[in-house]
């Protein structure tokens, strides 16, 4: 049976860590799904790792849906969550519902994610949940606000800033979010939030006390040309890909590939 939003809440109760990764195309989505990842997120980080933008800001809803449809074809078991891109939901709960509705109907995703915990986002979360669209929340470093923060900086460092993030997380849970991403905040703050909430926290750069962890798959594989300090690479695919491509080039240039079949 495929993973459900309710199951993730049970995983937290049972103390079973949630494993999440991002995907932007069919091939990687299928590999992640077959490797028993719990949550596949079509993150708007694809703007940077798959499309070459400097930030997530330029990504459109149409681009998101295009990639999410490809990912959907590769995911059978994991829960599929799709990021709503910048300015596809911030305007109003109605705009959020329209955008989430398109993602839901056109891609077959089981949930959407929105950044932020201020009042308008809490309202939009409630609106989507009432309409039957599960929402994953996202607080701390919310990359769509990178220019507001003045860079990809850790958030919640002062007691006041930390308390504000905690209050946002509580409000998002009350609005009906089924889980929440905690990005680049101090580990003790992430621990406090994780203890306070019933819904699972999924951390990235938020220490070991979250109820799950997520990484951008290009970082995990050592495929990205830049990665944040809190990411960990479990392979060096840049090197492997470069070597394979160079070997092909060398063999073609030296007339070693293809080799003519010996005549019978
Ligand atoms: O876009 C993304 O990859 C994300 C994760 C880092 C949570 O939002
Ligand atoms: Na994102």
Description:
With 264 residues, the protein is of the alpha/beta class. It has one domain (5-236): Phosphoenolpyruvate-binding domains (TIM Barrel, Alpha-Beta Barrel). 44% of the residues lie in helices and 14% in strands. The chain is built from eleven helices and eight strands. The protein has helices at residues 5-14, 26-34, 46-49, 61-74, 93-107, 119-130, 146-149, 159-175, 187-196, 217-220, 237-253; strands at residues 18-22, 39-42, 79-83, 111-113, 135-140, 179-183, 201-204, 212-215. The chain has an eight-stranded parallel beta barrel, surrounded by seven helices. α6 (119-130) links the parallel β4 and β5. α6 runs parallel beside α8. The chain is globular, with a radius of gyration of 20 Å. The termini are far apart. The model has no long low-confidence stretch (mean pLDDT 97). The structure holds 3-methyl-2-oxobutanoic acid and sodium ion. Residues 43-45, 83 line the site of sodium ion. Mg(2+) binds at residues 44, 83, 115. 3-methyl-2-oxobutanoate binds at residues 44-45, 83, 113.
Q: What is the global morphology?
A: globular
Q: How many helix segments? A: 11
Radius of gyration: 20 Å
**Looking across the biggest beta sheet, what order are the strands in?**
1-2-3-4-5-6-7-8
Low-confidence stretches: none
The counted number of beta strands is 8
Helix content: 40-55%
> Can you summarize the main beta sheet?
8 strands, parallel, barrel
The hetero compounds bound to this protein are: 3-methyl-2-oxobutanoic acid, sodium ion
Mean pLDDT rating? 97
- Quickly give the structural class: alpha/beta
- The number of domains is 1
Question: First CA to last CA: what distance?
Answer: 52 Å
Identify the CATH class. Alpha Beta
Range of strand content: 5-15%
Order of helices and strands: HEHEHHEHEHEHHEHEEHH
Write the CATH homologous superfamily: Phosphoenolpyruvate-binding domains
- Write the CATH fold name: TIM Barrel
At CATH's second level, what is the architecture? Answer: Alpha-Beta Barrel
Oligomer: single chain
């Amino acid at each position: 049976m495929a993973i459900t939003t309710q199951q993730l809440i049970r995983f937290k109760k049972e103390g079973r860590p949630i494993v999440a990764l991002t995907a932007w195309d069919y091939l990687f989505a299928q590999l992640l799904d077959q490797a028993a990842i719990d949550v596949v997120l079509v993150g708007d980080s694809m703007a940077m790792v798959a499309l070459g933008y400097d930030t997530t800001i330029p990504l459109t809803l149409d681009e998101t849906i295009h990639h999410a449809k490809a990912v959907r074809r590769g995911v059978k078991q994991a829960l599929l969550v799709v990021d709503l891109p910048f300015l596809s939901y911030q305007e109003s709960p109605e705009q959020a519902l329209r955008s989430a509705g398109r993602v839901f109907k056109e891609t077959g995703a089981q949930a959407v994610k929105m950044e932020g915990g201020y009042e308008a986002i809490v309202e939009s979360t409630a609106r989507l949940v009432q309409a039957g669209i599960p929402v994953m929340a996202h607080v701390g470093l919310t990359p769509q606000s990178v220019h507001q923060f003045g860079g990809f900086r850790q958030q919640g460092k002062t007691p006041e800033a930390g308390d504000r993030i905690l209050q946002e997380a509580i409000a998002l849970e009350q609005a009906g979010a089924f889980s929440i991403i905690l990005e680049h905040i101090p580990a003790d703050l992430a621990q406090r939030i994780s203890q306070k909430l019933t819904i699972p926290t999924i951390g990235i750069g938020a220490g070991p006390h979250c109820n799950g962890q997520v990484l951008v798959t290009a970082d995990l594989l050592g495929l990205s040309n830049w990665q944040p300090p809190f990411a960990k690479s479990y392979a060096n695919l840049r090197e492997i890909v470069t070597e394979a491509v160079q070997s092909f080039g060398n063999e073609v240039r030296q007339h070693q590939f293809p080799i003519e079949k010996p005549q019978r």
